[in-house]
Amino acid sequence: MTDTTHDHTHDHDHRHGHGHDHDHTPSSGRALLIGLVLTGGFALVELVAGWLSGSLALIGDAGHMVTDSLALGLGALASRLSQRPPSERHSFGFQRAEIVGALVNAGFMLVVVAWIAYEAVQRLIHPVEVQGGMVLVVAAIGLAMNVVVLRVLHGGEQNLNTQGAILHVLGDLLGSVAALASGLVIALTGWFPIDPLLSLVISALILISTSRLLRDAIHVVMEGVPRHIDLERVGHQLQAVDGVESVHDLHVWTIASGHYAIAAHVRIRDLEHWPLQLDGMKRLLRERFGIEHVTLQPEPLYDVAVIPLTGRERAREEH
Asked: Is the full-model pTM beyond 0.70?
C-alpha cells in the first residue's frame, strides 16, 4: 500500500447528514403508526378471546400479531429517529435503532414460539375443550382487520420499512385464516385437536419470519456486505473509471435498512484528476448500487525506479 499525505488523501461524502431523506417519509411513518395501533389493539383482543375460549390457535395468532406490532412500531420509530441529525456521540445518527429493536423483537418471539409449541404438544396429548363459535367470530374479525391494515400500508409511502411491514401483515393474515379454520372445524365437528395442530402452523409462520429478521439483523451488526450487492462487481466498476489503476481494501456495509456505505483505497495515475474521478465514482455508486455514503482514499502511483539517489543514499546502498 502506498501512503500519501496529500490534502485529498481522504474524501468522505456525508450525504446522510443533511436532511436525512432516507425513504422514511412522514406518510410512511403515519401508515406504520396506524397499522401499529390497529394490529396491537386487536392482538390484545385475540389474546383475551383465546384465553376465554381456550383456543391456543387464537393465542398463537395474537402472538403473531404482537410480532407485527413490534415490527410496525420499530418501523415507525426508525422513521422518526432517522430525521434526527448526527451528533458528536452518534455520527451516523440513530438509524440503527431499528436493528437493535429487531434483535430484541426476534429474541422475544423465539420465546413465544417455544411456549406455543410446548402448549400445542401438551394439548395434543391431553385435548382441551375449545369454544369454536367464539374462535370463529374473533378470527373472522382479525382477518378483516388485517385486510384493512394492508390497505393502509399500501396507501402510504412505499419504502423498505413499509415493504417489510406488509410482509409481516401478510403472514399474520395467514395466521388469522388458520385460526378461522380451527374455529370452523370445531364448530362443525367438535374435533378439538385441530386447534393445537393449527397453532403449530402459526408457530411455524412466526418462526420463519423471526429467523429471517434475526438473520438480517445479525448480518447488519456483523458489517456484512448487503445481500443484493456483489462486492467484486463494485470493485470492477470502480476500477473501470478512467485513470484508476486498481482498487483495494474495499468494504461495503449497511448503516440501516436501505442505507449503505463504502470505503476503499483507490490507486490512481494522476492525483490532479482525482476530484473529477471522485465525482464520477460517487455517481456510479449511487446510480448502480444505491450507495450514498462514500469514503474513497486516493493513492497516486510513484515510479521509484526513476528517482535518482543522492550521494549519501548511494553510499548507504553500497555498504
From this structure: no
